[in-house]
Amino acid sequence: MIKAVVEIRLKPGVLDAQGKAIEGVLDQYDVEGIEQVRVGKLVELRFATDKDIEAQVETLCEKLLVNHEMEDYHYTIEECGDE
């Protein structure tokens, strides 16, 4: 089985409301020294075949998973067991 892991993050300069909310409560957890929090998404795709995986992942990122106005993405493809 093949696994593609897609990391999706907001582009620099795009307001991260979730990150700001986390920043707002850090002092309640005795956490110091954090200047900024950014929240992203992680999508795992598992394929039964290794045929055209990179092209399929690119298509999914371009047409479905990523908002290109606000987000950037990166992915890796790796073999995995039957986890």
Automatic annotation (TrEMBL):
GO molecular function: ATP binding; phosphoribosylformylglycinamidine synthase activity
GO biological process: 'de novo' IMP biosynthetic process
Pfam family membership, one: PurS
Chief location category: cytoplasm
E.C. numbers: 6.3.5.3
GO cellular component: cytoplasm
InterPro entries: PurS, PurS-like_sf
Pathway the protein contributes to: Purine metabolism; IMP biosynthesis via de novo pathway; 5-amino-1-(5-phospho-D-ribosyl)imidazole from N(2)-formyl-N(1)-(5-phospho-D-ribosyl)glycinamide: step 1/2
Subcellular location: Cytoplasm
Phosphoprotein among keywords: no
SUPFAM superfamilies in the cross-refs: PurS-like
Annotated coiled-coil segments of the chain: none
Keywords: ATP-binding, Cytoplasm, Ligase, Nucleotide-binding, Purine biosynthesis
Reactions that this protein is recorded to catalyse: N(2)-formyl-N(1)-(5-phospho-beta-D-ribosyl)glycinamide + L-glutamine + ATP + H2O = 2-formamido-N(1)-(5-O-phospho-beta-D-ribosyl)acetamidine + L-glutamate + ADP + phosphate + H(+)
Presence of the UniProt keyword Nucleotide-binding in the record: yes
Entry's family note: Belongs to the PurS family.
Subunit structure of this chain's protein: Part of the FGAM synthase complex composed of 1 PurL, 1 PurQ and 2 PurS subunits.
Function: Part of the phosphoribosylformylglycinamidine synthase complex involved in the purines biosynthetic pathway. Catalyzes the ATP-dependent conversion of formylglycinamide ribonucleotide (FGAR) and glutamine to yield formylglycinamidine ribonucleotide (FGAM) and glutamate. The FGAM synthase complex is composed of three subunits. PurQ produces an ammonia molecule by converting glutamine to glutamate. PurL transfers the ammonia molecule to FGAR to form FGAM in an ATP-dependent manner.
Name of the protein: Phosphoribosylformylglycinamidine synthase subunit PurS
Annotated source species: Amphibacillus xylanus (strain ATCC 51415 / DSM 6626 / JCM 7361 / LMG 17667 / NBRC 15112 / Ep01)
